[in-house]
Amino acid sequence: MDRVAIIGASMTEFGERDAWLRELLAQAGRECLADAGASPDDVDHLYVSNMASGEFEGQTGVPNALAHDLGALPAYTQRVDQTSASGGAGIYAAWQSVASGASDLTLLVGGEKMTHKTTAEATDVIASLTHPVEYKHGVTLPSFAGLTARRYLHEYDAPRESLAKVAVKNHKNGLDNPHAQFRKEVDLDTVMESPIVADPLRLYDFCPITDGSAGLLFCPESVAEEYVPEDEYTVVSGIGGATDTHVVHERDDPTVMGAAVESSDDAYEMAGRGPDDVDVAELHDMFTILEFLQSEAVGFFEQGEGWKAVEEGVTDRDGELPINTSGGLKSKGHPLGASGVAQAYEIHQQLLGEAGDRQVDCEVGLACNVGGFGNCVTTTILEEP
Amino acid sequence: MDRVAIIGASMTEFGERDAWLRELLAQAGRECLADAGASPDDVDHLYVSNMASGEFEGQTGVPNALAHDLGALPAYTQRVDQTSASGGAGIYAAWQSVASGASDLTLLVGGEKMTHKTTAEATDVIASLTHPVEYKHGVTLPSFAGLTARRYLHEYDAPRESLAKVAVKNHKNGLDNPHAQFRKEVDLDTVMESPIVADPLRLYDFCPITDGSAGLLFCPESVAEEYVPEDEYTVVSGIGGATDTHVVHERDDPTVMGAAVESSDDAYEMAGRGPDDVDVAELHDMFTILEFLQSEAVGFFEQGEGWKAVEEGVTDRDGELPINTSGGLKSKGHPLGASGVAQAYEIHQQLLGEAGDRQVDCEVGLACNVGGFGNCVTTTILEEP
C-alpha cells in the first residue's frame, strides 16, 4: 500500500499571542503550505485540531473560516476534537483521509487560544473533560497528577527529585527552541522549591497555559516528490489510538497508562517496529509524572523504571534515547489542539536534520499525545522514507 | 476496492428529552449495535458527531465517556464537529476509518442536547458558527434564510406558497415517523398565517430546537455478512464533502449552494451515479428554502425549478422523487450533531424496506447534510449491495 507522507510542517511561536485562533491557524497553515511549496488550491481536505474555540472565544465553525482565509475553498473541512489529544487525533484523521484515497493533499492545522482567559477559567474549560462526578469533587487534572505522582514515587521507590529532573531536562531543551514559550533553564532547587500545586507536585512540574498553532501537510508517498525532494519528507509508518476508563479511579493500576500501551502497540505493529527502534520521542509531559508513565507505557523502559532513565541521563538530548528535544509541553507550552501536531513537527524536523541546535541523530521517531488523564491517546511513528 | 457497508442503524426519539447527551448517545449506540447483533467489544473506532456539548452542557470529552458507557474500551474515539453538518462529517470520518483499513468495525453516534436552553440561548450557540462581522450585525442563520428566500422568490417567480408546501409535505411525512418531534399535519393556511420570523419566512418555515441521537455501524463489505444477511445491509457507494465562503454575502449567487454542488459531484463520481439514479433523498430542510436550494444543487432539478417540483407533487412520498420521507428536520427535529446521521438512518431503512408506513420504492438514496448556511456540506449516497 502507498504510505502516507508528510511533506510540510510548521509551528508558530508558542506563548501569549496577541492574535485570535483563526489568525494563529492561518499563520501555521500558510507556513506549512510554503514549507512544501504547495498551493492552497491543491488542498482537498483541511482538518483543524482544536478542543474548545466555542468555550474560549465564543467562535465555532473555525475550519470553514480557515478554508476561506487560506484560499483553500472548496476543500472539505472538519474539526477534530479529542480534548488535549486533538492534535494526535488530527494526525490520525489526516492519515485516514489520504490512506482511504479520499484525499490527495490534506492540511492539518492544530491550535488553541487560551491566555486571554484566567488560569482558573482555562483550567475549568479543560476540567470539563473529566467525569462529572470526579469534577464535582474537585478532582481536576492537576490533582490527578499529584495523586498519581505520590503513588508512583511510593510504588517504585523513586526520589521526588527524579520528577523535578524531567522539568530541568525539558527546560534545557526548550532553550534551543525558538518557538518555545519558556526559553530559560531551571535548576533542581528552583523546581523543588516552587509553590506546591498538588502535593507532591509543584509549579514547575506543570505545563503553562499557551496560545499557538502548528501544521502538517500530508499526501500519498507516491506523489511526495512532486512537492519536495526525497530527503525533505517523512512517512507515517505507524499510528494507533485508544481509550482508557473515563473514570480514572476505575483503572486497575493508576501508574499504568493503558491507552498509551494499546495505541503504541498498534502503531508499532503497523510500522513493523518496536520500542528499541525508536531514536527520538516526544511524550505528552503536561505534568512531569506523565513523561515517566508514557516512557514506560510505550515500552521504552520497564514499568517503574522510567524515573531511572531520567536520573541516568538516558533521555537527555545527548543520551541514548532523547525525549522531548523540543522542550516538551513543559517548556514549549501546551496550546491544547496544537500540542500533538507540534510533537510531530519536532519529530519531522529531527528526521530531516532541520532541528538546529536541538538536532539529534535519528531515523525513527515517536510522538505520544494524551487526552485527559490518559483517557485517550494517539501514538504516531514517523520515519525517513 | 472493498466497499464500506452499513450493517446497523438506530435513532432515538427526537424532541424534548429528559436525558443528558451522554445518555442519548449511549441509547443510540446500544440500539445500533443491537440492530447488527454486534458486540461493543468488537468496535475499534467510535466517532461522536456533536457540535457543542461544551457550550450546551459544560461537558467535553464525551466520546471517551461513551466508549466507557458502551463497554467499547479501548476503542479509539474522536469527536467530529462540522457545526450542523457534524453528522454527515461523521459518516465521512467513519467511511475513511474503514476504507483506510484502520478499522474493522466503526460505530458512529451523533447527538445533541439543546432543549434545556432557551431558544435565544440555543440560537446564540448556533450563531457562533457565522462570521464574526456578520454575527455582530445580527445576521443569524434565520435572517440569512429570510434574505435568501426573498431573493429566490423574486429571481425565479416562485409563489410564497411553494415554500409553505415544503413544510406541509414534510409534516405530513413526519406523521408516520414514530421518532419525529412533531407528529402532526399542518395545512397551508397554518404555515402562511404563522408569526413572521424573518420576512418572508414564518414560524412554520423553521425547524425546531431538539434533543436526540442516532447511530450507524460501519464495516468492510467483505465481512458484512458475518453480522447480518445480505438483504439487511447497505453500502456507502459515494461520499463527498466541500465548503463555501464563510462570509455568505461573498457568494456569487446566494441562491446557488456551491458546497452542495461540489460535494454531490464528488459523491456521484465515486458512486458512478448521477442525480437521475436517485430514488429517495433526505435534504437538510433547516429552513424550507434550503430544500429548494439543495434539490437544485445536487442536480435533481434545474436551477430555479425546485419549487415547481414541490408544487407538482414530484417530491411527495408518492411522487417520482420522494424528499424527506422522514419528515425532514422540519418535523422530525434538528439535534445538530444527530441530524446528518439520522438522514442516513432514514435512507438505510428505506433501502432495506423497513421504513414502515413511510416506505417508498427505492434502490439508491442520497443524504445531504448542511453546516452553517451552506458553509460546509457532506453528501452521501447509499445503495442496496
From TrEMBL, chains A, B:
Pfam families: Thiolase_C_1, Thiolase_N. Keywords: Isoprene biosynthesis. It comes from the Archaea. Residues 240-383 form the Thiolase C-terminal domain. One of its GO terms (biological process) is isoprenoid biosynthetic process. PANTHER family: ACETYL-COA C-ACETYLTRANSFERASE (PTHR42870), NON-SPECIFIC LIPID-TRANSFER PROTEIN-LIKE 2 (PTHR42870:SF1). InterPro entries: Thiolase, Thiolase-like, Thiolase_C_2, Thiolase_N. This is Thiolase family protein. CDD domains: SCP-x_thiolase (cd00829). Residues 4-222 form the Thiolase N-terminal domain. The keyword ATP-binding does not apply.
